[in-house]
Automatic annotation (TrEMBL):
Organism: Timema californicum
Domain of life assignment: Eukaryota
Lineage: Eukaryota, Metazoa, Ecdysozoa, Arthropoda, Hexapoda
UniProt keyword list: Cell membrane, Membrane, Sugar transport, Transmembrane, Transmembrane helix, Transport
Protein name: (California timema) hypothetical protein
GO cellular component: plasma membrane
Major facilitator superfamily (MFS) profile domain boundaries: 39-470
A GO term for molecular function: transmembrane transporter activity
Length: 505
């Protein structure tokens, strides 16, 4: 039996009682799950995001050392071309891993999916630790890319199946926060510790996750789909708190959702083009993905030390990289609190606008540096790249998959998510691999201006095509995309559980 990647969901009430309400009218007076339960599920999922972030953060401090005369792998210094392959080879693994993990999540348990999401990092970090050639690093990074793919497939699925709508956006944003913490952590590790130690640390993080994940339960949706009714009820009690009187009503809504899924065939690629609304949603999803990658965000994460070396800023390249990473955490932290309060479309527009300005300024700085002494203005690269990372972390980066999950119908959402993730990794590979080649062709300043232009185009795209999805039902969003008359959604008040969830962050 093929399961849809669409879990049961509950919704936030609009009445003045400020309580979470499910699909069943009896789902009132919901009490939150215990503090221990919430922290356990958040920290466990956060560990996988953290481990994924270490994969991305490894490149920036390590590549310059591999290009030096004292290469830690014992071979001659690698060329810029080889460095671009090491930085981008994980994208190949991620591209191949998306359909693989989509199949695993559709056909096997969420627990098994969670384990298999992290397993590739074990041989990857072992290869990194004992590498004595560029080829071993290519293979290691390719394998690590499989886990990057798993993060985009497993995480949204598991988070949606254990959380309610009123906290889902914030929980998803907190996963992005842990991902960014992992990046910054390895910026520090790569700078201060020996090369082989970085591999051992990465391996240790993966092992800890695999051990801790043992204590996380299977999702109620999957258990019920397998006919394990009692286990599904027990899991709901674990997630929502024991003796919660609303669990029975939520269980009934879960049963109804499962019947609806079984009654519909899984969507194919062809279904994404079947209606005007699905075609427009696919255009918006791919557009937002393209916007998030063509702005140069991933390039900065992977090549930040090299970028600051060429910019000749007043700070050392490693110090500037760590500062940028820390400011990225600030942006992610703010996003965690604002994603369910500020409009998605508004954040996208503002994020693109500020990113375009920052990249345009640093491009101008790099252009002028070629013909005049700019040491007096050496602070510009650090400030502009820092502001660019913060603005991106506030909007484009954390909102891309959240919006994709809100604009597709229940039947097509799983296939659409797969398509968008595959497109994302293709774009990341192209940008990461050919950044060095393009910068040699048009100069580093030309790359910055090109990224700035992409942000301007992203701003225009979000302004004219992306609908506002905050506090709106799926029905009204689909009606707008299909060009039907729209009934305005009522504003949603913050629920008691929403406030409790915010207190945990």
């Amino acid at each position: 039996m093929r399961l849809s990647l669409i879990p049961f969901q509950t919704h936030c009430s609009t009445d003045k009682s400020e309580k979470c309400q499910g699909l069943n009218p009896g789902l009132l007076d919901r009490k939150p799950g215990t503090l221990t339960t919430r922290l356990q599920r958040r920290l466990t999922l956060g560990l996988l995001s953290f481990a994924t972030g270490t994969v991305v953060g490894w490149s920036s401090p390590i590549l310059p050392s591999l290009q030096s005369d004292y290469s830690p792998i014992g071979s001659p210094p690698i060329t810029k071309e080889s460095a671009s392959w090491i930085g981008s080879s994980m994208c190949f693994g991620a591209f191949i891993g998306v359909p693989i993990y989509n199949y695993i999540c559709n056909n096997y348990s969420r627990k098994l999916s969670g384990y298999l999401s992290a397993v590739p990092l074990v041989p990857s970090w072992l290869l990194v630790t004992f590498a004595n050639s560029e080829v071993m690093l290519y293979i290691a990074r390719f394998i690590a890319g499989l886990t990057l793919a798993a993060g985009g497939v497993f995480h949204p699925l598991y988070v949606a199946e254990i959380s309610e709508d009123c906290v889902r956006g914030r929980l998803s944003a907190s996963m992005m926060l842990m991902y960014n913490i992992g990046i910054v952590f390895f910026y520090l590790v790569g700078w201060y510790l020996p090369y082989t130690t970085t591999g051992y640390i990465g391996l240790t993080i993966v092992i800890i996750y695999l051990l801790v994940f043992t204590y996380v339960p299977e999702t109620p949706y999957y258990l019920m789909s397998q006919g394990k009714i009692l286990e599904a009820m027990n899991t709901l009690e674990w997630l929502r708190g024991n003796n919660n009187p609303t669990i029975e009503g939520e269980f009934e809504s879960l049963s109804k959702r499962l019947k609806d899924v079984k009654a519909n065939k899984s969507a194919s690629l062809k279904d994404l083009f079947a209606t005007r609304g699905s075609r427009k949603a696919l255009m918006i999803g791919i557009g937002i993905i393209a916007n998030s990658q063509l702005c140069g965000y991933f390039v900065v994460l992977v090549y930040s030390v090299n970028i600051f070396q060429e910019a000749e800023s007043t700070m050392t390249p490693n110090s500037a990289t760590i500062l940028v990473g820390l400011l990225q955490l600030v942006g992610s932290s703010v996003s965690t609190f604002t994603v369910d309060h500020a409009g998605r479309r508004t954040l996208l527009i503002l994020s693109n606008a500020f990113s375009a300005i920052c990249l345009g300024v640093i491009g101008t700085y790099s252009y002028l540096k070629q013909s005049r002494d700019m040491r007096e203005w050496g602070w510009i690269p650090v400030v502009c790249l820092s502001m660019f990372i913060v603005s991106n972390a506030l909007g484009v980066s954390p909102l891309r998959f959240l919006i994709i999950s809100e604009i597709f119908s229940i039947r097509t959402r799983g296939m659409a998510n797969t398509v968008c993730i595959c497109v994302m990794w293709v774009l990341i590979f192209l940008v990461t691999k050919f950044f060095v080649n393009i910068s040699n062709l048009i100069g580093l300043h030309g790359c910055y201006w090109l990224f700035s232009l992409c942000c301007v185009l992203g701003w225009l795209f979000c302004y004219f095509f992306v609908p506002e999805t905050k506090n709106r039902t799926l029905e009204s969003i689909l009606k707008e995309l299909n060009g039907d008359s729209i009934v305005a959604d009522l504003p949603r008040r913050k629920s008691f559980e929403d406030k409790q969830e915010q207190a945990l962050i």
